[in-house]
Amino acid sequence: NSGMLLHVLGMPRSILEGLEKYGEESGRILVYEPEKIKGVVVSGMGGSFISGLFLYDLLSDRASKPILLNRDAKLPSFVDKNYLLVTVSYSGNTEETLRVYLEGYRRGTPIVAITSGGEMAAVSDRLGVPLLRLPPNVPPRAAFPYITAALASILEIITGVSVLEELRQAAEDLEKSLEASLGEGVAVARLLRDDVKSGLTPLVYGYSPYLSPAYRFKTQMNENAKVHAFFGELPEANHNEIMGWGGPLGRFTVSIIRGREEPEYMRARIEFLEGVLKKNGVPLYNLYGEGGSRASELLSLVFKVDVASVVLALLLGIDPTPVGTITELKGYLE
Ligand code: F6R
Predict the structure, then answer these.
(1) Which ligand 1 atom is the nearest neighbour of the CA of 142?
(2) 223 is catalytic
(3) What is the pLDDT of residues 231-252, one digit of tens each?
(4) In angstroms, rounded to a whole number, what is the distance separating the alpha carbons of residues 329 and 334?
(5) What is the per-residue pLDDT for 2?
(6) By the 8 A CB rule, do 5 and 311 touch?
(7) How far is the CA of 248 from the centre of ligand 1 (A)?
(8) Which domains are delineated in the chain?
(9) Nearest-CA neighbor of 109 among 42, 183, 13, 176?
(10) Average pLDDT value for residue range 208-232
(11) Helix 95-107 × helix 118-127 angle, to 10°
């Protein structure tokens, strides 16, 4: 049952390995001229989506070009041959992502595929579409370090932001703080286990630029611990969701994913929310990132929430690895 935990514990090593491999490879396979590309569209689902959000958090406010995230089976109409389309599918067989890939190809949009194989690799070989190959036999959501490194190596070339070095430093920082971060993840898992057992549903709040670890926490609790968990975005949630507290339905346990770059206006909003939660007897856990850079904070947060979700599964007596209903869905769609 501990396979997933080993993947999580290997996160810093896998990031470094991925950076080494893809950093070099991307320069070689990317046949498109960066100056001619207006923006990047990153398309993927589930475990193959999250790295896009992670890198969006990390660099979108510094990038010279827009980065768009697509989690759909279709492509926005403005995406033409002046954009770069990066399609991410670990298996290479996810229908939504394959549809986007083919639609992009039809429009003449330059494409880079990130996959371990499947249909996407086969079609790319046939059409001569550049491809970064992910290592085999990894559950898609555990391929996060490799997908992140591969995608970062492309975004660095297109946007001119030196993310590879930032990620390398972040992975080294994470290695140093691994034990403490592991301990924190386990502690949160214990609290959540008690909450879930007493009938509370996890709800995770995040805000920019730390949305990816917050969303990751929700999806990892879903897939690893097989529990319902929901995600909300601040400050928006304070303008609607906040009305549910004290209402007749819903019993939640709340985690807020936080970082150093918390502007005053955000702090005030979180303080207010904390007050409302307290008044209504809602358990609240604040999770902070470690390290002196945004990359280090983001990576340590993803590590902590991954640990928390896997350990939550184990404490609940659930095998974190299989995702039976998602597999069933894919079979149904074939
Ligand atoms: C399973 C997982 C899922 C998949 C999703 C898309 O570990 O994380 O969320 O990532 O079903 O499949 P792929 O990644 O193969 O395109």
Answers:
(1) 7
(2) yes
(3) 999 999 999 999 999 887 779 9
(4) 9
(5) 66
(6) yes
(7) 35
(8) 3-161 (3.40.50.10490), 177-315 (3.40.50.10490)
(9) 42
(10) 97
(11) 20
